[in-house]
Amino acid sequence: MISFIPRDKVSKNWIIIAPILSIVFTIFFGLLIFTFLGYNPLETLYQIFVSPFSRIDRISDILVKACPLIIIGTGLMLCFKSNVWNIGAEGQFIMGALLAGFVALSFPNIESKFFLLITILAGFIGGALWAFIPAILKTKLNVNEILVSLMLVYVAMLFIDFIVRGPLRDPMSFGFPLSKPYPDGALINKIPFPGIGFLGQLHYGIFFVILLIPISWIFINKTLGGFKINVLGSAPQAAKFAGFKQNSITITVLLLSGGLAGVAGVIEVSANIGQLQPEVSFGYGFTAIIVAFLGRLNPVGILFAGIIIATVKLGADNAQMTMGIPKVVTGLFEGILLFFLLTGETLQKYKIKWSEGKK
Amino acid sequence: MIKFYMRIFSLITLSISVLFFVISSAFAGSPTKVGFVYLTTPGDHGWTYAHELGKQMVEKRFGKDVKVSVVENVPEGPDATRVIRELAKQGNEIIFTTSFGYMEPTLKVAKEFPNVKFEHITGYKRSKNVATGNIRFYEGRYIQGVVAGLMTKTNKIGYIGAYPIAEVIMGINAFAQGLKSVNKDASISVIWANTWYDPVKEADAAKVHIAEGADVLAQHTDSPAMLQIAEKNGAMGFGQSTDMSAFAPKAQLFASINNWGPYYIKKIEELRSGKWNTGDGPNHWPGNVWGGLKSDMLVISKFQNMPANVAQKAQKALDGLKSGKINIFAGPLIDNTGKEIIPAGKALDDGALWGMNYYLQGVNGKVPG
C-alpha cells in the first residue's frame, strides 16, 4: 500500500526546486526517447518548446489555443477548490455553444456587435443549465457529480450532432451536417494590428480572458463567496460549523463553471468556426481539467498553465510539419511533461509512505 | 505566485533555447513544397492510409523535386485553420487538405494566401486557388452489390454507414442497384455508426448484423474492424479505401481502393508547369474533379474467396462501368416506398446524386433525419 501523508510544512526551497527538477527529468526522458526513435533530439525539443514563440503570429496562435482552456479552467477552479468534481466541462462547452448558436441563427440578418452580448449570455445559460443537472442531483439526491457530469458530455455530443443533422442543418449543404453561417452580429472578429494586419486568428475574445483573470482572482481571494469556497474545500467541518450552506455553494460553483465553459464555447465557435458543426470542442473541456490543476487552482497559475499546454500542442504540430515526427511521439512527450510537473507538485505537499496493506 | 510561474516559464524557454541552434531550411535547388493535412493517422488502414499511399506515390514519382510536409490527426475546426495557415507560411506551394471538414478552414486560409494552391478533398466550395477532388466511391459499391447478391445464402446484407449524408446514401443505393441486378430477393439493412472511424463501434455494428442473419457485410466507415469480425464469424465482406485482405484473408471478397496518387501527381505536375487550375467541373457538387473507375481514381482489388463464375460476373460489372455500358442510376428508379424517382429512358445526373435522401428498392427502413 502506498499512502500520501500531507507534509507539515511545504519547504520554500522545494517550491522552486521541484518544477526545475520536473523539467530536467522531462527533458532527459525526452532526449532519450527522441534519440532512441532516431530524431534529432535537440531540434525536436526546440520545435516543441521554442518554435511556437519564434514568430509573432505563432505567439498569437498560442493565445488563441489557450483562450478556451483558460476560461474553462478558471471555472473548474471554483469547483475543484470546493471539492466539487465537475468533469463535464466538455459537455457544458458544447451546450453553451449550441444555445448561443440557436440564438444567433434565429436572427439571420443582425449586424450589430451588441448582439454578441446576448449570444454570450445565452452561452453562459446553456452551459450553466447543463451543469445544473449534476448540481441538483448531487444536492437533492446525493448522486455522484463526477459520473453525472461526465456522462452528460456524451449526451451533449450526440445532441449537437442531432441538431446540426436535423433542425439546424443548412439546406444548401448537400446533406452535410453544418448549420448556416452565423450572422455578422454573432461573429467575433479578428483583431487588426496597424501596419501588420491580422495576426493569425487572434480575436477579440482574448479580452474576455484578460478581464476574467483579475476578476476571478479578486473573487477567490477578496470576497466572502471566495472565502466560503476555500473553506468548504480545505475544511468542510469548519464550513459546517460556520453555518455555510454547502448545497448552495455546490450549486453556485457548478453553475459558474458550467456557465464559463459555455462562454468558452461561444467564443470558440463565434471567433474560429462561424457556424455550428457536429464537433465544436476538441477535448478543451477535458484538457482544462489538467490546466486547472497544473495552475494550482489559482487564476494566474491557470493563465500560465493554459499557455504552457497550448505551447506544447502547437510545438507538437510544428515538430510534425518540419521534422515529420508523428503526433503519438509528441503526445508521449506531453504526457511525460505533465506527469513530472504534477508529480513534483504533489511531492511538495505530500510524503509517500509505504506500508503493509491489509487484505 | 506570478513570479513563480514566470520563473518556470522563462526557465523552459531559456534553458532550451540556449541549447540550440536553429536549422534553417536552405535547400539546394528548389523542390516544390507540398503539404498534406490528415484527419487521422495512416494507422487507420482506411481513409487516411489511402492518402498516405498517394503521398508516397508523389514522393516516388518526383523524388528530390518535391519536399513533402504532413500533419496528421488534425481536428476539423480551428486547429485545421492554424495548421493549414502554418503550412502556407512555411512556403508550401500546394496544400492537400484531405477531409470534408477542412472546407471552411481551407477557404479561409486560401483567401490570405492567393499565391498558394489548395486542393480540398471531397468538398463542394471552390475559389480561385481552391480546387476540389473527389472519387466516385459508389461505383465500387455497385460491384460489391453484384458480388453480395451472388454470394449471400441468407439474402440478408448488413451495411454499416458512417453518417446519413448524400455521399453515403448514394453508395447504399448503388450497392442496392448492383444487388438487384443479380438477386431480387436479397435486401440491405443499414446500421449507422455515427463515426467515420471507431473500430469498436464498427465491430459492434458488424456483430449485430451477423446476429441478425446477415452473411455479407459492407461498410462505409474506415477501419478494418468489420472485416475482422466477419473473418471470425464466417461471414464475408468488402474492404474499404485500401486493400484490407491482410486483416481478413478469408473474408475479404475484394476491396474498393481509393487511388489518390495519380490525382496528386497530376495536380503537382500542373503546378510545376504553371498550368494548375481548378478544373471546369460543375459548381454545385463535391469534387469538380470527380473521378471513378474510368480514370483509375477508384481501383478494384483482385476478386478472391469467391467461385469463378461470381468473379466473372463481377469482372463484367467492372468492365461495364468502365466502358460506360452500365449506368448505375438509369431509370426506372423506384424508391423503397414505391415512389418513382425517375422513369425508364432517363438517368439521374450527378447533381441529383448529391441530393439523395431516400433509399432505392432493396434497402430496408428509411433515411434518418
Secondary structure elements and their pairing?
The complex is a heterodimer of chains A (359) and B (369).
Chain A: E1 2-6, H1 12-36, H2 41-50, H3 56-81, H4 89-106, H5 115-141, H6 145-165, E2 190-193, E3 197-203, H7 206-222, H8 224-234, H9 236-241, H10 246-273, H11 284-294, H12 299-323, H13 327-349, E4 350-354
Helix pairs in contact in A: 1-2, 1-13, 2-12, 3-7, 3-8, 3-10, 3-11, 3-12, 4-5, 4-6, 4-10, 4-11, 5-6, 5-10, 7-8, 11-12, 12-13
Chain B: H1 2-19, E1 32-37, H2 47-62, E2 66-71, H3 78-89, E3 94-97, H4 103-112, E4 117-121, E5 130-135, H5 137-151, E6 156-161, H6 166-182, E7 187-192, H7 199-211, E8 216-220, H8 225-233, E9 236-241, E10 252-258, H9 261-272, E11 289-291, E12 298-300, H10 308-323, E13 333-334, E14 340-342, H11 350-353
Parallel strand pairs in B: 1-2, 1-3, 3-4, 4-5, 5-11, 6-7, 6-8, 8-9, 9-10
Antiparallel strand pairs in B: 10-12, 13-14
Helix pairs in contact in B: 2-9, 3-4, 5-6, 5-10, 7-8
